Amino acid sequence: MEEKGERARILLGLSPNCEPNHSQLKAAYRRKVWESHPDLFPPHLKPLAESNFKSISEAYSFLLSPSPEFVGKRGRRRYDRGVPIPRGTQGRHHALLVQFPFLFLVLGTLALGGFIGSRAYTKQKQSYPSHNPFLP
Asked: Could you tell me which residues come within 8 angstroms of residue 84 by beta carbon, excluding any fewer than 6 positions away?
C-alpha cells in the first residue's frame, strides 16, 4: 500500500520518500491544480485534463486521510501513533468573528429603523396636529 502513497506524492510533484506537512501538501496540490485545470485546455484535450485533474484530487485526498497505509519516516504508521495530518479548522475558530458583525448589523438596522420611524411620526404629528385629546 505504500506504493500508492509514493505514486500520490509523485503525482503532486513531491519526492516519493518525503513526509509533507499539511501546508506543503496543500501548496503542492494547489500548484498542480493550477497547472492541470480542465478549463485551461482546448476542447479536444479536456477529457485528458479532466482525468488528470481527478487523479490529482484523489492523490491529495489519499495523502490527507489519516489511513493506516500512510507510513512515517521511521517505518511506524502515523495512524498508529495517533498523529494524522490535520485537515484544517474549516472556519470553526472564526465563528465569533462572523457573528459579531452580523449582530451589530442587525442591532444597528433595528436602532436606525426605530429612529427613522419615531422621527417620521414626530414630523407627521407636527404637520397634522390632532384635535382629539385622546390621541398622542
From this structure: 66, 78
